[in-house]
Design goal:
Blueprint: H1 3-17, H2 23-51, E1 57-61, E2 65-72, H3 84-101, H4 108-130, E3 140-145, H5 154-171, H6 191-203
Antiparallel strand pairs: 1-2, 2-3
Helix pairs in contact: 2-4, 3-4, 4-5
Length: 204
């Protein structure tokens, strides 16, 4: 193989090494994170309902961590217990928006973060839709209890972790395409122009 034929091959290999997954690849990563979050949430809730009675408290790592099985018709700290349907509609809207973002994400970290939020939203939405007392007004199973804090579940944990990760990415100026935003991108300095000027002065 001649040198001239080796150069195009080397350039092609270099381009192949830098290829990033298309939108479908990141969408699959986001979907996988959502499925894992949803699956863990529903599995742990099934375990709680199968092994505990409503209101039961079990020490796990006292006094830091306990299982406390409750049914929550409202939000955190039992806020809005008379407006369960509002939370259901909100979760539907959030889930729909996240599915839309799935088509736009081009960053592995963003895909993981959005996937966690989507999995958590779908986990609690499943409770709202299919648990008693009625469709769309179901009560969410909560069981993780920490001192002086609201009782929550795996879905809530996924949402919080995802939102924290999104905040960190936003603070660092990383967009959903994985690139720095214009305001955070470093400015190019005309270093070569300065050197050329110095060389011209020396030649004079």
């Amino acid at each position: 193989m001649t040198k001239s034929s080796e150069e195009p091959a080397a350039k092609a290999a270099g381009r192949g090494a830098n290829v990033r997954p298309g939108w479908s690849g990141y969408a699959l990563i986001m979907a996988a994170c959502a499925v894992v979050g949803l699956g863990l949430d529903q599995l742990t809730k099934w375990w709680v309902e199968s092994t505990m009675v409503l209101g039961q408290v079990t020490d796990v790592l006292p006094p830091v961590l306990r299982w406390h099985y409750i049914l929550n018709p409202g939000a955190a700290f039992s806020i809005g217990t008379d407006y369960t349907w509002v939370f259901t509609l909100n979760m539907v809207a959030v889930s729909g928006f996240l599915l839309y973002l799935m088509l736009k994400v081009r960053s592995l970290t963003w895909a993981i973060a959005l996937g966690l939020v989507l999995g958590g939203a779908l986990g609690n939405l499943t409770d709202r839709l299919f648990r008693a007392p009625s469709f769309g007004q179901g009560h969410v199973v909560d069981f993780i209890a920490l001192p002086n804090f609201a009782i929550f579940n795996i879905a809530d944990s996924c949402v919080v972790c995802g939102v924290v990760l999104i905040c960190l990415l936003t603070l660092r100026g990383i967009g959903m395409d994985g690139q720095l935003t214009a305001s955070d991108a470093p400015e190019d300095t005309p270093a070569t122009g300065t050197e050329d000027t110095k060389n011209d002065e020396g030649n004079r």
